[in-house]
Specification:
The protein has 342 residues and is an alpha+beta fold. It has 2 domains: 9-155, Aminotransferase class 4, branched-chain amino acid transferase, N-terminal domain (D-amino Acid Aminotransferase, Chain A, domain 1), CATH 3.30.470.10; 166-326, D-amino Acid Aminotransferase, Chain A, domain 2 (Alpha-Beta Barrel), CATH 3.20.10.10. 23% of the residues lie in helices and 30% in strands. The protein is built from 8 helices and 17 strands. The relative contact order is 0.15. The model has no long low-confidence stretch (mean pLDDT 95).
């Protein structure tokens, strides 16, 4: 049995907790990512004029390590995170992240903090790789020097009340990202755009907001930190990827499971407001939320109830199948599991 920290695993929230160590690396804009090492977990020194603080030049990833039924620690599709960070860094004028360097840093961080990984079915270790410009600058332009950090935290459910159907708001008052921008990069600035709308939605009694396409508000894009799906007549519909939608790894996994294991038709195209309001089931996906049902949606003061009493059958099956693969309760038919211990 793997030894664990003395933590009340049943009371884990989705918060940043101090662990033993974190990976810290650095790079100059004409170099390749190669330097870095584990350091004690703690604060970092940064100039008040750092490019990231003034111009938000930074990108990040979100990943989870699991203690599985096979009594080993695994990652889920880490190469997709590595490749997405490589694409995001390139779009943000940051030295392109080297996938092998990224994977090595993530592995080193987990293994040095392995006793903080929650036991089987008690949560997960959340990994946050983040890279940002550190050069002091008061003129607009990319940084010259960059820092890459990977830190970890044991986490429970993303929602304080646990996974249950969400109460969502559709509004045309705000857009999450613009077409032909950086909405498809996991850039830190993208998430700040959803803070005020999300706060306003919560003040009105909703869990969060569903954003509409900026170029045509007749269509849905995604939530502030999750992709979105609708189920109609056993067909899965989700907005197609483009310049303003993040290519979610959980999104991709759900589509593969739906097509290859559940024999469902999947439509990656336009998801209209009318379709989502008349859907049989609606759910969101993400590393943090996994697969979470949406129980009701309100637009123009008209509330549409979907699955308030629980998960719809397809949402439930998709969530159960994905979690069972991640926790090695069933065979992994896609070779998604990346073991870190035997």
């Amino acid at each position: 049995m793997l030894q664990k920290q003395n933590i009340d695993w049943d009371k884990l929230g989705f918060n940043a907790s101090k662990t033993r160590s974190m990976w810290v690396g650095d790079c100059i804009n004409d170099e390749t990512w190669s330097r870095g090492a584990l350091e004690p977990y703690g604060n970092i020194n940064i100039s008040p004029a750092a490019c990231v603080l003034n111009y938000a030049q930074g990108v990040f990833e979100g990943m989870k390590a699991y203690h599985t039924k096979k009594d080993r620690i695994v990652l889920f599709r880490p190469h997709m995170n590595a490749n997405r960070m490589a694409e995001s860094t390139e779009k943000m004028c940051i030295p392109k992240m080297v996938p092998d360097y990224f994977i090595n840093a993530v592995k080193a961080t987990i293994l040095d903090n392995i006793d903080f990984v929650p036991p089987f079915e008690k949560g997960a270790m959340y990994l946050r790789p983040i890279v940002f410009g550190t050069t002091p600058s008061i003129s607009v332009g990319p940084s010259i020097e960059y820092k890459f950090i990977v830190f970890a935290s044991p986490v429970g459910s993303y929602f304080p009340e646990g996974a249950k159907p969400l109460n969502m708001l559709i509004s045309s008052d705000f857009h999450r990202a613009a077409p032909k921008g950086i909405g498809n990069a996991k850039a830190i600035g993208n998430y700040s755009a959803s803070l005020f709308p999300g706060k306003e939605a919560k003040l009105r009694g909703y869990n969060d907001m569903i954003y509409l396409r900026a170029s045509n508000e007749g269509f849905v894009e995604e939530m502030g930190s999750a992709n979105i799906f609708a189920v109609k007549n056993k067909k899965l519909i989700t907005p197609r990827l483009g310049g303003s939608i993040l290519p979610g790894i959980t999104r991709n996994s759900v589509i593969r499971i739906a097509k290859d294991l559940l024999d469902l038709e999947v439509d990656e195209g336009d998801l209209s407001v009318d379709q989502i309001l008349s859907a049989d089931e609606v759910f969101c996906t993400g590393t943090a939320v996994i697969v979470n049902p949406i129980g009701s949606i309100t637009k123009d003061d008209n509330k549409i109830s979907l699955s308030n009493k629980g998960y719809g059958p397809i949402t439930k099956k998709l969530r159960e199948t994905l979690l069972s693969i991640q926790l090695e309760e069933i065979a992994d038919p896609f070779d998604w599991i990346y073991p870190l211990t035997d």
